[in-house]
Design goal:
alpha+beta; Jelly Rolls; Spore Coat Polysaccharide Biosynthesis Protein SpsA, Chain A; 4-stranded antiparallel beta sheet; 19 helices; 24 strands; glycosyltransferase activity; GlfT2_C
Length: 637
């Protein structure tokens, strides 16, 4: 509800003062929530003498994004009401302060209330929104909309939606049905391409016939072997470009909850951008619906790592601090890329820069945004366009089978795009990650990361060649390590028993200074070469929760039961001095070789990029994989 309607009577966006949290500054905890006021998706019933604000994520107008990326310079707010009410229009500045712009009292009129508002002073940020106040009687808000003028010769673009799915036919059928049930979206929706890479087929799912009927000729299901997210989305891109009918293709995860209005907004915003622009949507937490993962994504070039953009905060809860009471969110955020949970890409861009990187999973969306930027194309994460997705906090994919793809793909992207000599800090960080995994007895993750480096050294030809086979090899390698064998029942393990008590009876704690951290690292490394106690091979010395499984805690143990990050079980981590020494030496040697060959490898990957992201290369991969073009869902795939 906080994403749609704000029941807090606080009208002015408070300034954030040092020493206070946003929630303290907003004083937003006392607002009541009235879902009973909501009539349907477009209507709101407001009792007498009540006031609500539509200054919310989904209902405010992100004027600064329109000023920055389009030539539109006026927006019209049209509000249709029944009853005596006052409509008050506000705008915010990039500093997060609110200004009253205009207001109108409807009285007994039934005509729509219209405001024509300039988009002229939102250079660094700012939104428009309106509040609604009922007078002596109840008021019915029947509809409200923001609209912009169409220039001469305007023609709305056509949209294809590309969904990649793997053994989630129920999610997929549900989302297809939602798309077909959106009357506002259907006029611009040309095709929905489902790339099914699983063994549980979407075409066999109960309810798929209803979804197919609602979408009609628009639905196409393509079946192929599992080539990961990049292979699935590349197929959707290829099908769209080769069809030649759509202006845009939107890449959409299969396991999301959608706001179909947001899909329409992304397409409409793209219609008005000055130049072809990638338009992405935000991601909200599927389990905490008012919590946003991030407001913008960026790449830190010296470390070549991705994360939240500058001036943003992760995990923002709109239920605690809504849009009007969150000053930093009124500043426009410029991004390097948008995650492919929801991302619209003009087909013109695809024709110029190619399809997805053939990396199976991880870094494909990041790399595409960087590649587009290098070709002069902008990515916009558009407020008001979003999906709900399982949060990353529910898993740790840096220590499971995905560790291989995290490592290899980050190196590939760094080799191609890093502006710093030999990748800046990235190689050093890579060595540090290996060291932390070794100290944590996570030998399977280190082995996968080293295999990734070996593949990077082999050159770019391996990317397409192994995209359909590498996952099996990765899983087989990981399964040979104790730390990767998860049991759902703790009774499968021997009882926890520690022969030597902790130092002074205290649990390990993070180092308080850099010098203390270095000293602990040296001591922990020295401990790794000591013989493992016999007792620790027979019984785990401790049971460590997933959130506590840090290197400085595990490095003091010879063995431990460690809970998996999703809480479904635990694995027995056992210190192996010989294995740790072997992996450490391999890591040092591989990093040395990569460092010495940096310029040569960077040139190889840069030169090969246009080819291995080309339609021709991907078409060959799909054909070699034995796939065929899909057919309409109604006649089978």
């Amino acid at each position: 509800m906080p994403l749609y309607v704000d029941f807090n009577n606080l009208q002015r966006v408070p300034e954030h003062k040092p020493g206070t949290t946003e929630v303290d500054a907003a004083a937003s905890g006392g607002a009541d929530v009235h879902p009973d006021y909501v009539v349907d998706r477009r209507s709101l019933s407001l009792p007498a003498h009540e006031r609500v604000s539509l200054g919310t994520y989904f209902n405010a107008f992100p004027a600064s994004y329109w000023q920055a990326h389009t030539s539109v310079r006026t927006v019209r707010l049209t509000v249709e009401l029944e009853g005596d009410a006052t409509v008050v229009v506000y705008r915010s500045t990039s500093r997060g302060t609110a200004n009253r712009v205009s207001s109108t009292r409807t009285g007994s009129r039934s005509a729509p209330v219209v405001f024509d508002l300039p988009i002229a002073s939102f250079g660094d940020g700012g939104w428009y929104w309106f509040d609604l106040a009922a007078h002596s009687g109840a008021v019915l808000l029947t509809s409200a909309e923001w609209s912009v003028p169409e220039p001469d010769g305007f023609q709305a673009g056509k949209l294809s939606i590309a969904v990649t799915t793997f053994n989630r036919p129920d999610y997929c059928a549900r989302n297809l049905k939602a798309l077909g049930a959106s009357p506002d979206l259907l006029p611009v929706l040309h095709r929905v391409i489902v790339t099914d890479q699983g063994t549980q087929k979407v075409r066999e799912e109960a309810g798929i016939d209803d979804a197919a009927e609602s979408l009609g000729h628009r639905l196409e299901i393509v079946e192929q072997a599992n080539l990961g997210g990049s292979g699935g989305f590349a197929r959707g891109m290829l099908e769209t470009v080769e069809d030649g009918q759509s202006t845009y293709v939107m890449l959409l995860d299969d396991d999301v909850e959608m706001e179909t209005e947001g899909i329409l907004r992304a397409a409409q915003f793209a219609d008005f951008t000055r130049n072809p622009t990638i338009v992405g949507g935000h991601m909200f937490n599927l389990f905490e619906r008012a919590v946003m993962h991030n407001f913008g994504e960026a790449v830190q070039p010296y470390r070549f790592s991705y994360g939240g953009a500058e001036n943003t905060r992760e995990g923002h809860d709109f239920g605690s601090s809504n849009l009007r009471t969150t000053p930093w969110m009124h500043r426009r955020v410029d991004v390097d890329y948008n995650g492919w949970w929801m991302c619209l890409i003009p087909t013109e861009i695809i024709r110029q820069i190619g399809l997805a990187l053939p990396v199976f999973i991880k870094w494909d969306d990041v790399e595409y945004g960087i590649r587009a930027k290098a070709h002069g194309f902008t990515t916009v994460s558009l407020p008001g366009a979003a999906v709900w997705h399982m949060p990353w906090t529910e898993k740790d994919d840096t220590i499971d089978w995905q560790a291989y793809y995290h490592q290899r793909n980050r190196w590939v992207a760094t080799l191609i795009y890093s502006p710093y000599k030999r990748g800046g800090r990235m190689p050093k960080e890579s060595l540090g990650v290996d060291a932390r995994h070794l100290l944590s007895m996570q030998y399977s993750a280190v082995e996968l990361r080293l295999q990734a480096l070996e593949d990077v050294l082999s050159g770019p030809e391996h990317l397409h060649r192994t995209i359909g086979t590498k996952l099996g090899e990765v899983r087989a390698t990981r399964a040979s390590f104790d730390d990767a064998r998860v049991s759902k029942d703790l009774a499968d393990f021997p009882a926890v028993k520690r022969s030597k008590p902790p130092h002074k009876g205290k649990s390990p704690a993070p180092a308080r200074s850099r010098s203390a951290a270095v000293a602990r690292l040296i001591a922990s490394a020295a401990y790794q070469v000591r013989p493992v106690s016999v007792a620790a091979t027979q019984n785990p010395e401790a049971h460590v929760a997933a959130v506590d499984a840090r290197w400085w805690r595990l490095a003091q143990l010879d063995s431990a039961l460690v809970t998996s990050s999703d809480g479904t079980g635990a694995s027995w981590h056992k210190r192996d001095a010989q294995k740790a020494r072997e992996l450490a030496l391999r890591s040092a040697d591989l990093h040395r070789r990569l460092y010495l060959r940096w310029d040569e490898l960077a040139e190889q990957y840069r030169a090969a990029l246009p080819d291995f992201t080309s339609q021709h290369a991907w078409r060959q991969t799909f054909e070699l994989d034995g796939t065929a073009h899909g057919t309409d869902a109604g006649t089978g795939a």
